[in-house]
Each structure stands twice: as structure tokens, then as C-alpha cells.
Amino acid sequence: MASTDPDRRDEEAEAAAGDDEDTGAQIAPIVKLEEVAVTTGEEEEDVLLDLKAKLYRYDKEGSLWKERGSGSVKLLKHKVTRKVRLVMRQAKTLKICANHLVVATTKMQDHAGNDKSCVWHATDFSDGELKEEMFAIRFASVENCKKFRDMVEEIAESLGKDEGEENADASSAAGLLEKLTVTESKTEGDAKKEVPADAADEEAGKQ
Questions:
Q1: Number of C-beta neighbours around residue 53 at 10 A
Q2: Would you say 68 and 97 are in contact if contact means Cβ atoms under 8 Å apart?
Q3: 100 - beta bridge partners?
Q4: Cα–Cα distance between 148 and 50 in angstroms, integer?
Q5: Is the CB of residue 80 less than 8 Å from the CB of residue 44?
Q6: How far apart are CA 89 and CA 72, in angstroms?
Q7: Which residues 6+ apart lie within 8 Å of 85 measured at CB?
Q8: Rounded distance between C-alpha atoms, residue 33 and residue 78, angstroms
């Protein structure tokens, strides 16, 4: 019970203040924590796109869509190889829920007429092994969905053109090699026909 005497209350207040008084003593921590460098695997990549979204994966066995997580979906371009991959991490745990390359055959499709969502197939590596997956992603706005879809399709189309040019170059090189081979064969045949008569007689004499 608190005292009603003013002097007594002052004494109690001073005693309480004395208990909280800093003595200046320093206590060393029991465990010393060292700073650890955290790597995400994205250090050698440039961010082309970074948007908030919710990702779903189609479960073939259950024939239904299952949520993979909500977080940040990124399109990352490697500084050396120039390859682009799609990576998505869950917001709180940073666990990877999608991780695959954008290739020439990557194609975005509408999802049940929802302008904020799109669907695509990919060979994904988010679970530590390559698996064929079908993903659906939903954005907060139609604009973000369109931005994501347009950039993925632009990258895929660019890769398709590059592959087409490489195939054309390979065909041209093969055709050139074929022509060279035919020319060499004709040259060798002509050389055999133009053997001097003396050499032919000498060769016959040896037989």
C-alpha cells in the first residue's frame, strides 16, 4: 500500500530511482556473432523486370491449381551468357517458387479470361530438379500483367530470331562444304585423266 506521507513518498521515489541508476558496468555478450555475406545467385545478372505477384502451379494428379507463393517475380539477364531467366521468391521466406530460363518456345496464354493473369509452360528448377511445369501468375493490375507478358514474349521472339539466323548460317556453311567437296572430287578426277603417256607406259611396265 502506497504511503500518504509526502516525505515518505519522496524517499520511496528516490530509492526506486537508485535501483535504476546506471552503474557503468559493461557485460560482454555470451555469443559473438560474425557478419556473414549472403549471396542470392543473382549477383551476375541484371534485373529487367521486378513485379509483385501471386504464383500458382498446376497439379496434374489432383487436376487443380495450387498456390506456390506470393512475392517478387523477376526477369534476370546474365551479364556474360546474356541468357534470361524467370525467378520468383516468396515474400517472407525468400524461398524460390519458380526458376527457369526464358527460351524461344516460351509462350504466354490467357488464363480463363482474366486480364490480370496469364499461363505458360516451362522446364523449372525451383525444387532442385528439372521438371515440366505449368504456371499461372496473377498481378494486382492489368498493366503489370501486360508488362510482364509483353517482355517475356519479346525475349522469346528475339531468341527465336537468333536461332533462325544460326540455323541459316549452319545451312550456308554446310552447303559451302558440300560444294568444296564436289569441286575437290572433280579436280582429283581430272588429275587422273591428265596422267602423261610416258608415266602411264612406265606404270604398265611395272605391272
A1: 19
A2: yes
A3: 86
A4: 9
A5: yes
A6: 6
A7: 45, 75, 76, 78, 99, 100, 101, 102
A8: 34
pLDDT tens digits for 174-204?
555 565 655 455 555 555 555 455 544 555 4
Dihedral sign for Cα 91, 45, 145, 103, please: negative
Percent of the chain scoring above 90 in pLDDT: 55
Which residues 6+ apart lie within 8 Å of 124 measured at CB?
98, 99, 100, 130, 131, 132, 133, 135
Q: How confident is the model at residue 10 (pLDDT cuts 50, 70, 90)?
A: low
How far is 127 from 143, CA to CA, in rounded Å? 30
Q: What is the SS3 assignment for 105?
A: coil
Cell of 90: 516468396
The separation between CA 133 and the C-alpha centre of its own chain, rounded to angstroms, equals 15
* Alpha-carbon span 171 to 42, nearest angstrom: 37
Q: What's the CA gap between 6 and 14, in Å, rounded?
A: 13
Which amino acid makes up residue 153? E
Give bridge partners of residue 139 from the DSSP assignment: 53
In degrees and rounded to multiples of 5, residue 162 shows phi and psi of -60, -40
Q: Quick check: 111 and 170 in contact, CB under 8 A?
A: no
Cα gap 37→196, rounded to integer Å: 80
pLDDT in tens, 146-180: 999 999 999 999 999 877 666 555 555 555 556 56
57 touches 133 (CB < 8 A): yes
Cell of 160: 527465336
